[in-house]
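Notes continue from the previous slide.

Worked example: a multi-chain complex. Inputs as given:
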Amino acid sequence: MPSFERKFALHVPSSTENLALIRDFVSAVGAQVGFDENEIARLALAVDEACANVIEHAYGSDATREVTVRAAVEEGEIHFDIIDTGRGFDPSLIKPEAVEELVKQRRSGGLGLRLIRTIMDDVQYRIVPGEMNELRMTKRLKK
Amino acid sequence: MATNFNIERSEQSGIQVLALDGYLDAHTAPQFEAAIQELLEAGKIRIVIDCGKLTYISSAGLGVFMSFIEEIREQGGDIKLASIAPKVYQVFEVLGFPELFNIEADPEAAIGRFGKQ
């Protein structure tokens, strides 16, 4: 791995039709960093889940708003930051529920967060009131 | 933007087969949800989902399976899955789907499972 920092960013309107574009962006960055095909698929899934949450919950599917995805490679890890200016939502407040329980209750919520936590090594959330919300997902690079 | 997702519907031996083609994410999941809802309303509750051409699934797609399965089973039906590619299967696996759903190697095997009930 080169030692210099590499940064990438994508800004898209807050619409689920852009999720495919977001996955393509993550896949391209992942490939450049040297992740294998399965790892790239998992990274794209985690970022898709985070962005889908922003589009549907933070922005209430308002396509006039904007979602920003930033990727930065530094010091043996890659961060994906998902930035929005919608309703803040701290995922650490959500307790993971058993999938069997969700099925019994006919609910499908919470699966995205579970996938994000499974795929990524670290997940941090930061709310800057009145300014922005930022979900930082970190994956360590293999040496 | 054209969506890269299609559902092909067929009926084999009285079983409804939905063959998914493309990606199933938060954008395309409503199409899948509508297809299952349509079958449920028509009382066609023995369903096989052929995932042979499914290239991607996110929680929005998985959520469709989860939100219908209880009601369909209560009515004596089931949703069985078939032909899931390894890259897609790993997502099902993370969430424990293999314990909740019959997953078969191909649609014929999934259709056959209904006969054994």
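Summary box: The first strand of chain B starts at residue 5 and ends at 12. Chain B touches chain A through 27 residues (CB under 8 Å).
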